[in-house]
Amino acid sequence: MTEKKYAMDLNIITGMSGAGKSNVIRLLEDLGYYCVDNLPPELFIRFVDLLAKAGFDKVSIVVDIRSESFFLSLYDILAQLKGMQIDYRIVFLDASDEVLVRRYKETRRRHPLADEGTISNSIKEERKRLRTLRGMADTVLDTSDLSISQLHDRVYRMFNQDSNVEMAISIMSFGYKYGIPIDADLVMDVRFLPNPFYVPQLKLLTGKDEEVYDYVISSQDAKIFVEKYFDLLKYILPLYLAEGKHHLTIAIGCTGGRHRSVALVIKIGEMLQQFLANQPIYSVVISHRDMDKVKVN
Q1: Around Cβ 245, how many Cβ atoms within 10 Å?
Q2: Would you say residue 296 has pLDDT above 60?
């Protein structure tokens, strides 16, 4: 006899200490989720089973390095959830080591692995211990450059989507000089294209301005790239979805994230939106991480 499948939206929120899990759990509570922070691993299955039988359909549980024994039994716990026919999503919050160090110094909080020595050493050790879990995550959310309002927007879009949406696609521009986005699933380097930065009348503009956009998109190499990359995306999106990928972040980068990557994200993002317009299981959001980070002199 097939065991009953519980209609529960279960999220396992985890990640690096200082990456924003407390903020995310508060936002999820505002979205109607029943949230629990730092649940002991030995109570995990019984707690989820109790909530499922009680009819709770939106649940989020924070597990992190404070409950390290959770990770030792993680595979068994996830297998039991599958056996209960409860679907779950693992959301891993991350940030750069530099940002995490700064946050700990600003708040003067004690890192859970403070016995490892300096804050930097504690962060490195935590990242090492969480490496496997990060690889299992359905979504990796990089909070390094997010304000509270920006984090609120990302969480709202991630968890408050239309019920028909099965895959949320984020396509963003970025600058390599500021680092590759931690939460990127696909990364494309477009520094092979001519750089508008070296054109005096375009230097102070961005890829959103018509003059820069036309300069980038009108080149023959850009036209060929857009066609081939778009064909690749059309081919792999259904494959990702079939493998259970519900949030995909596509990052396109140039040197400063101001000209070429911005123009190409706009172009490819709009092509995706148009192509997927009649497929409501997909949503597409366009963003520009570094476009306004530094004003050009």
Answers
A1: 16
A2: no
Same domain, residue pair 105 and 214: no
Q: Which of 107, 137, 159 delimits the end of a domain? A: 159
**Which residue range(s) make up the domain with 273?**
167-288
Considering the domain architecture, whether residues 25 and 154 belong to the same structural domain is answered as yes
User: Which DSSP string corresponds to the chain?
Assistant: -PPPPP--EEEEEEE-TTSSHHHHHHHHHHTT-EEEES--GGGHHHHHHHHHHTT--EEEEE--GGGHHHHHTHHHHHHHHHHTT--EEEEEEE--HHHHHHHHHHHTPPPTTGGGSSHHHHHHHHHHHTHHHHHH-SEEEE-TT--HHHHHHHHHHHHS--TT--EEEEEEEEEGGG---TT-SEEEE-TTSPPGGGSTTTTTS-TTSHHHHHHHHTSHHHHHHHHHHHHHHHHHHHHHHHTT--EEEEEEEESSSSSHHHHHHHHHHHHHHHHTTT-TTEEEEEEESSTTTS---
One domain, residues 120 and 186 = no
Residue 92 lies in a domain: yes
Looking at 135, 159, 183, the residue that finishes a domain is 159
Of residues 85 and 122, the one with the higher pLDDT is: 122
- Mean pLDDT of all residues in 114-125: 86
The answer to pTM > 0.85 is no
Any domain includes 297: no
Residue 116 or 24, more confident: 24
Report d(CA 166, CA 168) in Å as an integer: 7
Q: Looking at the structure, do residues 35 and 141 belong to the same domain, yes or no? A: yes
What CA–CA distance (Å, rounded) separates 186 from 286? 14
Which tens digits make up the pLDDT trace of 43-54? 888 898 898 888
